[in-house]
Specification:
- The protein is 49% helix and 20% strand.
- The chain is an alpha/beta fold.
- The protein folds into 3 domains: 3-98, no CATH class; 155-235 and 363-406, Nucleotidyltransferase, domain 5, CATH 3.30.420.10; 237-358, no CATH class.
- Helix 3 packs across helix 4, helix 13 (321-334) runs antiparallel to helix 14 and helix 16 (365-380) packs across helix 17.
- The longest helix has 25 residues, at 236-260.
Length: 407
């Protein structure tokens, strides 16, 4: 291949190919020469120095493959004395990123967005550690460009996801309109979400119209302190989870009693292999048959199921939702079923947040879907030791650092 053609293919600023060498492994080595002898840029202070060159050297930099062969560039580099600190510094070349070109780093970043670091390393002939360093460096660079300052949302959803065992969580903030994560941080308390609002600034916080949350005290307190104009919506998917958890608690209590009393028929109905039928929101024939049998065999579980179905009916008519919620809370507290008594008081304290759903119908459904992607990401990598890198990977797969957004 002609040297001018190789120079054109490489598309490297102010350098040209002067010689091509192949080694015993069929790797391609391209010796470069500087076209114009411009003053060097100091890698220490980032300034152009007009001082004399201290020494010259050649660094080997890997570039994109040509015809399936690995390509290494032999790039001339100069050293000079920095006028700021007096130390000998190597010059900074804009298209070189460590021992790789920017084009190569871009390919690593794109590969790791669709597969694991291990698989990307196998494809490129690199070890996992090199892929990790290149990918992290590229993501940090993009984060400064696209996530600083934090994009201000009009409607947002906030939720947490576990990133390690022993209750180690990450808080994710999702822009509901963009359907992308715009901010995340380790932790799940009030101080964690406070950092997000402080990074937005008072003016942008005032523009937030609605926030969907799972009702965690820390999140609610932070939203009330900073996003004072926003409607707080208690997500109805989490409400259904609270109801299912209460029903399941009653089921387990009654199953234990049935086994102690050797009540085989009731034990069969309340067994965990049929528990999922009771948890269904949709009324099926199987569920209807179970409810009819429970009505005669165990009034307590049947009453719990009715309370759950009655609450879900609140969402059918926005006009009567306020009155229906008040009646349900009274019924739940009078039921004397501890799980529902506690739930009744909980919904009483947060009744305004429940009813805000009818004023602004947003949910944390996007956050829950993103949480599933994050869990899959963590499983593919067999976990992450570096939480900062994990946060960047979340942005890469579920946020504004996804390479698909720039294509």
């Amino acid at each position: 291949m002609h040297l001018d053609t190789i120079t054109e293919l490489l598309d490297i600023q102010n350098h040209k190919a002067v010689e091509v060498i192949r080694d015993e492994y069929q790797n391609i080595y391209v010796i470069l020469e500087r076209i114009e002898d411009t003053p060097p840029v100091c890698s220490g202070c980032g300034k152009v120095h007009g001082t004399s060159v201290h020494s010259r050297d050649v660094v080997v930099v890997e570039d994109l493959r040509i015809s399936g062969k690995r390509v290494f560039l032999l790039v001339p580099k100069r050293k000079m004395r920095c006028i700021e600190d007096g130390r000998i510094r190597v010059e900074e070349i804009p298209w070189v990123n460590g021992r790789f070109t920017d084009q190569f780093a871009e390919q690593v970043y794109r590969l790791t967005s669709i597969t694991t670091n291990q698989e990307a390393g196998w494809f490129l002939g690199l070890d996992d550690e090199k892929v990790y360093r290149i990918d992290k460096s590229k993501l940090e660079e993009l984060a400064i460009e696209k996530l600083d300052p934090v994009p201000a949302p009009k409607q947002m959803s906030v939720d947490e996801v576990a990133w390690q065992k022993w209750h180690k969580y990450v808080t994710n903030v999702v822009d509901v309109e963009k359907r992308k994560i715009i901010w995340n941080h380790q932790g799940r308390d009030k101080s964690t979400l406070d950092m997000f609002f402080r990074s937005l600034g008072k003016e942008n916080c005032g523009k937030i119209k609605a926030v969907a949350s799972d009702g965690a005290k820390g999140y609610l307190s932070s939203i009330e302190d900073y996003a004072k104009n926003a409607l707080i919506v208690l997500d109805h998917f989490h409400i259904k989870k609270y109801l299912n958890d209460a029903v399941d608690m009653v089921r387990k209590e009654e199953l234990k009693k049935a086994r102690q009393q050797n009540n085989g028929e009731l034990s069969e109905i309340l067994h965990c292999n049929k528990g999922f039928i009771l948890m269904q929101n949709k009324v099926t024939n199987k569920k209807q048959n179970l409810l009819e049998r429970l009505a005669t065999l165990n009034e307590r579980v049947y009453q719990a199921m009715l309370l759950k179905e009655q609450f879900l009916s609140i969402y059918t008519d926005p006009q009567t939702a306020g009155k229906a919620l008040k009646e349900w809370i009274i019924t739940a507290i009078k039921s004397k079923i501890p799980a529902f008594v506690e739930l009744g008081y909980k919904f009483f304290r947060k009744r305004h947040y429940v009813l805000n759903y009818f004023r602004c119908k947003i949910t944390t459904a996007i956050s829950e879907g993103i949480n599933n992607k994050i869990k899959r990401l963590s499983r593919m990598a067999y976990g992450y030791r570096d939480v900062h890198y994990f946060l960047l990977k979340i942005h890469q797969h579920c946020g504004l650092l996804n390479p698909r957004l720039s294509t």
